[in-house]
Design a protein that fits this description.
3 copies of one chain form a homotrimer. By secondary structure, chain A is of the alpha/beta class. Chain A is built from 12 helices and 9 strands. Chain A has 2 domains: 3-143 and 305-319, Rossmann fold; 145-301, Rossmann fold (3-Layer(aba) Sandwich), CATH 3.40.50.1370. Helices cover 37% and strands 14% of the residues of chain A. Chain A has a 5-stranded parallel sheet with strand order 7-6-5-8-9. A 4-stranded parallel sheet of chain A has the order 2-1-3-4, with helices on both faces. The longest helix of chain A is centred in the last third of the chain and has 21 residues, at 300-320. The two termini of chain A are 35 Å apart. The A-B interface holds A 52-55, 81, 83, 85, 88-91, 93-97, 100-101, 103-109 and B 39-41, 46-47, 63-66, 68-70, 72-73, 76, 86, 242, 280-284, 301-302, 304-305, 307-308.
Chain lengths: 327, 327, 327
């Protein structure tokens, strides 16, 4: 029986992975499978009334399709009402503070605020001062906790299938994260999440794209792709943010491809069972060759599917088991 | 028993406060409390089916978070379907007239059209020619009637609590409106609304921000803040629209703050029971000091909460009691 | 009994009119009347549960009010959940391919994807590779199939009323399409649709606005407005896209008006029963004089009303009778 059955959820917010215990993370992962079934409309169930009459506000200060859409669908499948506020339509253009905007949203009796913001820490500051349940949907380069949870869930499902052990954990699983770790909130949340779950994390990329003191996070570091993936159970390619190339963080795209791209050539160094993952959107043939992105080892679209279920699990736990302060 | 119980609602539209009788205004205010309860989810009721299957279209030609959101929530809590059309997505970029765009929306069987437009009078012109129920959500510098109704409702709730008289009216209540009256549709609607309800209105601000012939509206005018607030039951600070400062309508922001800002210093001249109100969004420490905006006398967030209930009351009255022409 | 009762719907997608048989088109038209009643809320029915729990995604790469709104309402009246993705909010700004964006949407278990794209053929390419039901809401200058279906439905309703024959078809009905055929996806879909239904189509406009080899489509062509309309049952004015005037495709707007505008003067050449149609938005007094657009022969707003019902019929047939590949 999983450790999480002894754990009760009592947090008001999901601001990041770093503050969570292993038990809390596993509780979220254990709550998700019921929502995978709803999300896929298996057995005819299309919605559950767990957030009936509740209000979920998507408040995105950066453009996003997949994350915003995933949260909106998760809320709708929980029967919540949804409201979308984008930076361009919001009062921030009139100079209102984040606190005042949120206080106004809350005065209309919102339950969950899903926030993406370009400033690291914005969700934490809001969570500390407001009664709504805050979910961090990405804050600057800091954290993207629901991405890490859906990644861990996807890996765990495959480990359980592969080992035919329905209670297998991530203990001892090796995940190689390849590419631009420095600018990636996904990598940061993934490292915390995988470490807490007992996985081994190895980072690999050009020196300019790896944080200076990253070993402190308890990870292995290498600049040799084959070394990183030769014993990896999961190969997680990060997105290269081409817009940063102006800063010349690596010599050239051709150089990056030669050394770090996951393609059928470099994959020959990896175990046959290794999964291919990516947080999307993909730069095809840059960080991932098309034959790999669309190949049999790729679970990239499963990540997207599981994302809806994980976000349903998170919002259900926050609203129905979470600690309420104020409200 | 309130006068409004004798009044039946029979208007198709809410284009402004100016055309309404005291009885009509009080009917709206008397209809709101049941929706305050729904909006707060008191006694487990989260929605009412009063607009089930109806279509409410939010048609905003100016950016807005709080007003658009408030109307959208009000519609959803009445179980209506909602649709949002913004100027940038609309056919106005293709040169279509307002009448033609509205005729097209109506041809899809809309029930309520909530319109914000930068031209004063736009909602009135549309209301006269179309069968849908039109609600003015702000037209140029002219009117913002639901703001005035939620303001009056908020004041009345506090007067009733303060006097322990559940049927107290606004007769004789003094409201001091401070700041940029000239450019404010909120002030214009508030003045009409408060006057009709028997309140005394005193305007205070730099001469350049007060309309020339404002005394005609039946208000007192002063340029001395302490004189305005010394006997005020309500101090209503208007937003300074900083973008207009290019026109140099007052000598400097520092000068404005010294003479007209509501802060703990200037509040010493006001009665202890005086409420602090503001239509939002606030320029903190310009028109209102932070200690006042967040202080015990501030009912600014109650205004926002009551806004949803008032908008539910308005749309319910229009659709379920209103006069239908055409359709 | 209509031919369509022998036809079963078995297409996964509606990419255009060209591939449809007459029987398939008539099946859609015969499915619409029940939804006209729902759309008008006749007999108290406001929604039908035919797409309950299904997800309809509106994915518009060009701005649109009427088409997007019409699809969104159609989906809501079928009780579907809806999600809207616009080009500006989407990952296309991050360089993601159409296929990858759609694969991501599908991974969240979408049922119907309504797509408008400035590239001709985009819906077809997506339909061939993805399991979702794809509905073309306009692709470049190529097709706009639901517009053609609502046009045919509107004409057929009037023919049936006019002839007092509830099973009348479009056989032998003459439709004159006036104006900018060259740049119009509406004209292209209308020509295919009307031809398949047995109607005679006559195109009329300046030579520069008529496609070179248009006779191949089985239509008559004339540059004389009076010749085109003297025996027309329907006069269909296309929108002049003023932004193309930079290319000087016709000598001047004054010249166009003199030769091709439908006004009370030119209408004297047409039969008394001829209907006036337009796909909207109208340039008033350019392609249509105001007295004609708003006159008794105009069925322009009926087209808009019928559009919601036709789109309900299309989505119902695709989801509930359509061929599923994959998913």
């Amino acid at each position: 029986m999983s450790e999480s059955t002894q754990i009760a959820w009592n947090r008001k917010d999901l601001t990041g992975i770093e503050p969570l215990s292993r038990g809390e993370i596993e509780l979220i992962l254990d709550t998700a499978p019921q929502f995978v079934a709803v999300s896929k409309r298996q057995s005819g169930i299309k919605k559950v009334p767990l957030l009936q009459g509740r209000l979920v506000v998507n408040w995105f200060h950066e453009p996003s399709t997949r994350t915003r859409t995933s949260f909106e669908l998760a809320a709708k499948r929980l029967s919540a009402d949804t409201l979308s506020i984008t930076a361009s339509t919001s009062s921030s253009v009139k100079g209102e503070t984040l606190h005042d905007t949120l206080a106004n949203i809350e005065a209309m009796h919102s339950d969950v605020i899903v926030i993406r913001h370009n400033c690291a820490g914005a969700p934490h500051i809001l969570a500390a001062r407001h009664a709504s349940h805050i979910v961090n949907a990405g804050d600057g380069r800091h954290e993207h906790p629901t991405q890490a949870l859906l990644d861990a869930f996807t890996i765990r499902e495959h480990v359980r299938k592969h080992t035919s052990n329905p209670e297998a954990t991530l203990d001892g699983v090796k995940v190689a994260i390849i590419g631009d770790v420095e600018h990636s909130r996904v990598a940061r949340s993934d490292i915390w999440c995988l470490n807490k779950l007992g996985a081994r994390v190895c980072l690999c990329g050009p020196a300019t794209l790896l944080p200076m003191d990253v070993e402190r996070m308890g990870v292995e570091v290498t600049h040799d792709l084959r070394e990183a993936i030769h014993d990896a159970d999961v190969i997680y390619a990060l997105r290269i943010q081409l817009e940063r190339q102006a800063k010349a963080l690596f010599p050239s795209i051709r150089e990056y491809i030669r050394l770090f791209r996951i393609d059928s050539d470099s994959l020959q160094s990896a175990p046959a069972h290794a999964l291919i993952m990516h947080p999307g959107p993909i730069n095809r043939d840059l960080e991932l060759a098309t034959e790999v992105a669309d190949g049999p080892r790729s679970v990239i679209l499963e990540q997207v599917s599981n994302g809806v279920a994980i976000r349903m699990a998170v919002m259900h736990l926050l609203v129905n088991s979470g600690n309420k302060s104020g409200s």
